[in-house]
């Protein structure tokens, strides 16, 4: 555990001492604020709808999730391997799993910070005398962090599997798009409502898992387990790729 | 493990690769199984964090869903209305879909929800035709052979059309949204057993119901079928007694008198808890015959008045006029509807009007059962009167203060009492219900669009498909910020779009400068 903590702190320091994190944070918070105000104006001041649009109810949120995690994770292993820092890390008294989990937690922490703009918007609304449904808002935020953890773990897989950070980011981006649009394959193959393919692909519908519970203000254990289980799987996969570097 | 000098052999690499692939596959399998297990109905847990528990079904509704005898199907045919109601109708549709999501969530074994897209009009039309439906913005609920219909803007949501006047503009809005109650009643209706059978009496010049026409009840019988009733005819010449499975008998505007045996058959039917919709003859000649329907109604405590109910009408200049047959076509506003009776309550709440042409009036007779509960469901306007015909059968269409009754006389009444035959066996469950309607024209195809809901409510009450459920609706108001009045939007622009990202940028610059120094 101490190894995870050390890696986590080291990664966070690495993130915030570089310009990339601040640029991403700045752009992310700007777009979140922009779409919140746009949503507020578009819904005639409907607070809950505007907040849900800033979260997973609108496409800007999902665009953020498929773009930002690859940018965050691309350098975490791939860049360190290229610069030789990873050699030192792998010889340090921490397990490969601890390395991956520490890096994953750092990436998720950053995403949590990036997504926290919506909580700020909730506070702003409170200042103007309109109290949002805080239970629903907090759960929506929690779900957004869980969903981002899944994408960060996927990004780490490609970061561990490739030598160049840009290639890692590109592959992670493509994988994120594929993961997000996987349920559309049912339409592509003309699967009818209730068809086997549609039902099978619905199991992997990230948007549905998020919108069907967290965004509605329902903590549904089945959806939480979905995000946690697949995040754990991708973290495991990243660990195996990291381990494979020892064999090269 | 055999290692060659300078590296591992390809066989060993393959073996290790295969082992890693296997482990990854097992890990993926574990993730899948964990997800699958977590979604099992017995294992999945839900915690509603919303302030108003928006995602939690009322206990009454949850119990009804859990008690469904088989999987019910809910099919929606919803389409936004044209301007200026596009926004409000989209809101209503979104709310219905949202509600159905909550209703069906975790109950896939009991409920199937299908949203028919009216954008794909061909497919939706095929299904609408299969269901014998000719309108949209309806929700069909079926369970086995039974089905019923909910209309979005009658049963589920009520829309306040607002005020289009630019000086006092008020946008259309959803005045009330009560899906919990509507779906609870509908699901209870379809899960109550075999379809309810309604028979229309025939052979006495009654109104046609099997074929369309201006004076026909075809639209009514079709709507009853869509609502899950089985509709048929009772011809006493072929079947002297009413069938045992007949729940409701409708006698609509008979022009010829009933025979003694036929009346006895109806009496026996009522005595065993049968339900009767009676519309006395609109013909004055047949009204006066012995064996006419009003004699039977008197036994249930309903007295039918001779003559027609009339009220002054307004000419194009707005002046009140009497003296011609137009006075016999009454428009009954919501104030004329009984707000506490299941037949008229929803119409009264929606401020609906009924058009009642050429109607008889009713009164309570002292010849009915002692325990009869008498209710006046529809009353004529206050300035109405009962216009009585002259001996020659002609109407003056002018109120005669001396000889004619004035005031809001009842145009439709309902009576219920413990069924005499059942009372003898001390089984208190069976209740006879009789509903008398003064005007057959009011429920014909011509006026069905106006009065159809009233007619359907009447049959549902007669068939005891009017379970009263009181599920308090959730607050209809959403948290809103008044963007026009308050100065919120400019502040949101400054703080959310500029302020927070700027603070971030400044922090980054400060950190960068500190690192440099």
Shape field of chain B: globular
Topology, number of strands of chain B: 24
Amino- and carboxy-terminal Cα gap of chain A: 28 Å
Query: Which structural class fits the helix and strand makeup of chain A?
Result: mainly alpha
Largest sheet report of chain A:
none
Helices and strands in order, then pairings?
The complex is a heterodimer of chains A (248) and B (517).
Chain A: H1 2-17, H2 19-42, H3 47-54, H4 59-73, H5 75-83, H6 85-91, H7 96-115, H8 117-127, H9 134-161, H10 165-181, H11 185-188, H12 196-202, H13 206-211, E1 218-220, H14 221-245
Chain B: E1 3-4, E2 7-8, H1 10-38, E3 46-48, H2 59-66, E4 72-78, H3 86-104, E5 111-117, H4 121-130, E6 138-143, E7 146-151, H5 152-156, E8 157-160, E9 173-177, H6 179-190, E10 197-202, H7 218-226, E11 230-235, E12 246-252, H8 260-271, E13 275-279, H9 284-287, H10 293-299, E14 302-304, E15 308-310, E16 313-314, E17 320-321, E18 329-332, H11 345-349, E19 354-357, E20 362-364, E21 373-379, E22 385-387, E23 410-418, H12 420-423, E24 431-437, H13 448-462, H14 488-516
Parallel strand pairs in B: 4-5, 10-11, 10-12, 12-13, 13-24
Antiparallel strand pairs in B: 1-2, 4-6, 6-7, 8-9, 14-20, 15-22, 16-17, 18-19, 21-23, 23-24
Helix pairs in contact in B: 2-6, 7-13
